[in-house]
Amino acid sequence: MTDLPDLRQQVPLGLAPRGYSGTIHRLAAGQAKSTLPSDELESRLIELGFVEGARVEILHEGIVARDPIAVRVDNVTVAIRRREAMAIIVA
Fold first, then answer.
1. CB neighbourhood size of 1 (10 A)
2. Residue 83 belongs to what H/E stretch?
3. Residues near 44 by beta carbon (within 8 Å), at least 6 away in sequence
């Protein structure tokens, strides 16, 4: 059996609109403009459940600058800043 390429475009979760649902493909903490060092950001995201293969859905976004966002990761709902969500690559 051959591995078929994923035809959905990969984007940072921080750019996705409310209602978006997809799957986490990888973390790219070095690309986020977070105040945290990239290794610490990656560690925190993993602790919150943002791991490769997890299903995500954006449930809500804040009033001011659409920040923070409420994200369902598998069966858990967490709030995260959009700048940290830029480290989560989804499709």
1. 3
2. helix 82-85
3. 36
Q: How far apart are CA 22 and CA 62, in angstroms?
A: 20
Distance CA 35, CA 16 (A): 21
Q: What is the pLDDT of residue 3?
A: 56
What is the mean pLDDT of the segment spanning 67-71?
Answer: 95
Question: Quick one: fold of 21-90?
Answer: SH3 type barrels. (2.30.30)
pLDDT at residue 35, as a whole number: 82
Q: How far apart are CA 30 and CA 79, in angstroms?
A: 20
Among candidate residues 54, 53, 71, the one with its CA nearest the CA of residue 17: 71
| Percentage, residues of the chain above pLDDT 90 | 78
Domain borders along the chain are 21-90
